[in-house]
């Protein structure tokens, strides 16, 4: 029986995904965490914890180094809220182009008897533009960015994309009509609208700052529905003052953005739909079960991709440092236990490596001794023994 501890409000559909081999919130020594926004940085991760799955895109709330050293795999649910974010960005593109917020505020303030005549006279103040034929620059063409780019094409916009890390698989999701730029500056040079959709890391912090804003044409409309810190807010406010940026829409507020007429802050609702919460919770639950039952890894944050069909009777998984001679040390321990390896695979991601070894015959009495021997290798984080049911 596997034990899962949940944090935050997890969609019931996700909880219902777990089979009867899983118990929820019944143990202080869980095998898995299923989380959303809880901050784990100040917590001590239990040694029993083998996997953390976040029902969402980012993992800024997870201490990745501590998790790795604890032998805990960390996953998120990429793409689970992508459609939700896409739809909000497209809605805001329409709102921005038609001055809908200013028009609605005007109507709310003018309710007097002659409102019909007055609004007929004043409505030209809110004349907008059409998106048809306008240019949108999309910075980051992953799960969200590709959807935004394709949807904008369907609205008749010209779309220019920039993503230096675009994978071959991701490229298949992007319509061929999306133009590819070689730099951010080239992507935004002629854009009427610029939207950013990249993960937050050291390379993307303040990705759009003063130089990038200066490369845009005057009166550009800017959108950040990626992460706080991707756009340099101080630089944006300066660009608004000079007229370089006409309006800034973001899901990530801070005090300096408050009460700015040319800034619209939404309360971090980009991925907040009922469907996205269900998608994230369901995907996270499935990820937990796959990892705990098979040891296979796909799209983990701190482990390499490694998927091996589980056809043998037993499987050892070893999470360890990516240092020389590890495979040799592991196989020597199995040879000393007189075990014949049926299948073996190894992969690495940065400083962490992962090894899967399948065996057909195993003496149950000596299996724990072998696990202990493998755990004694200094660079090993965690050893697991899985039985094929």
TrEMBL record:
Q: Which reaction does it catalyse?
A: (R)-2-hydroxyglutarate + NAD(+) = 2-oxoglutarate + NADH + H(+); (2R)-3-phosphoglycerate + NAD(+) = 3-phosphooxypyruvate + NADH + H(+)
**What EC number is given for this enzyme?**
1.1.1.399, 1.1.1.95
Keywords, A to Z, come to: NAD, Oxidoreductase
Q: What class of enzyme is it?
A: oxidoreductase
Q: In which pathway does it act?
A: Amino-acid biosynthesis; L-serine biosynthesis; L-serine from 3-phospho-D-glycerate: step 1/3
- UniProt domain ACT: residue ranges: 315-388
Which family does the record assign?
Belongs to the D-isomer specific 2-hydroxyacid dehydrogenase family.
Functionally, this protein is described as follows:
Catalyzes the reversible oxidation of 3-phospho-D-glycerate to 3-phosphonooxypyruvate, the first step of the phosphorylated L-serine biosynthesis pathway. Also catalyzes the reversible oxidation of 2-hydroxyglutarate to 2-oxoglutarate.
Name this protein carries in UniProt:
D-3-phosphoglycerate dehydrogenase
- Write down the species: Lactiplantibacillus daowaiensis
